[in-house]
Structures are given as C-alpha cells and as structure tokens.
Amino acid sequence: MSVENLLVEMLGAVPHWFAVMVIGALPISELRGAIPVAMGIYGMEPLEAYFLSVFGNLIPVVPLLLFLEPVSGYLRRYHIFDVFFTWLFSRTRKNHSKNFEKYGLLALTLFVAVPLPVTGAWTGCAAAFVFGIKFKHSFPAIAAGVMIAGIIVTAVTMTGMGLADLIFGV
C-alpha cells in the first residue's frame, strides 16, 4: 500500500478538501503527493487540487521558519544534537553554498520548485535557516517555489491521468 493510499484511508472520515491539505502539509508527501491524491482518488478538478495542496504545503512554512533556530539552539545544549547539527550545517553549507552565494533567493525558490525527493518547502525552510536567510526574504521565495512545484505536479498529474485514460480506457 502506498503512503498516499494509507493517508487517504486514515483520513477517510474527514472532508476531502481537508485531507488534501493535510497530505500537502506533511514533510514526505507535501504537494507532490497531495495533488495526485486530490485528482486521482478524490476526483477533484486540477485548479481545486492545486490551491488546496499549495495552501496545505504552505501551512508548516511559517512555524518552521520562525522556530527552527530556537529549537535547534535548545537541542544543541545536548552533545548528540550538537554533533548532529554541526555535521548537518557544515555538510549543507559545503554542498550548496556556491549556489546560494551565486543565485541568492532564486536558488532557494528553484530548490523548492523542483518536484523531486528531498526538495520542497520543508527542506527549503531548513536551507533558509542554515544560510541565515531572514523570514521576510525566505517566505516569499519558498512560497514561489511551492507554487511553481504545484504547477509542475498538476501538469504532470493531468498528463498522467490523460495517458491512463488513453491506455486503459478508465
């Protein structure tokens, strides 16, 4: 059973619009899982699926951007977390600092916009925190990336559903 189907089964008693927003807000599925579920399982129109998924995906962004620093600061008091965060931050800076220095907020937007595993709003918030990008700059960049990713995922889902109709006569 796929993650999306499991979530749909668990959220079966709640309204479809709410379930799509919850799936969009989760760190693993985000809107990459919410849009196909909305259109393929719930039969929502593309525009409705897009807006509910994007809104759901943006819900955790504000708390993440506001609370990542204080939470990591608190956890760093403990040796194991300090070692982990030191490793994570140095690795992230080493692997991505050239792109962020060269392209700035555009790099953050594009990073969030690419609908691949380990990209998206949650990871974009972590990157904004690691690179010290202030909320007033990071939120619009992440929101733009989420909207672009939503357009891409909606288009791919529509294309995939169209191909399924052609192939299987569904």
Which secondary structure elements does this structure contain, and how are they paired or packed?
Blueprint: H1 3-10, H2 16-25, H3 30-41, H4 46-58, H5 61-75, H6 79-103, H7 105-113, H8 121-130, H9 135-168
Helix pairs in contact: 2-3, 2-4, 3-4, 3-9, 4-9, 5-8, 5-9, 6-7, 7-8, 7-9, 8-9
Report on this structure.
By secondary structure, the chain is an all-alpha fold. The protein has 2 domains: 3-57 and 149-168, no CATH class; 61-146, no CATH class. The protein has helices spanning 3-10, 16-25, 30-41, 46-58, 61-75, 79-103, 105-113, 121-130, 135-168. Helix 2 packs across helix 4 and helix 7 (105-113) packs parallel to helix 9 (135-168). The mean pLDDT is 87.
Brief sketch in words of this structure:
80% of the residues lie in helices and 0% in strands. By secondary structure, the chain is mainly α.
What number of structural domains do the residues give? Answer: 2
Distance between the ends: 21 Å
Average pLDDT value? 87
Helix % is over 70%
Proportion in β-strands: under 5%
Question: Structural class, from secondary structure content?
Answer: mainly alpha
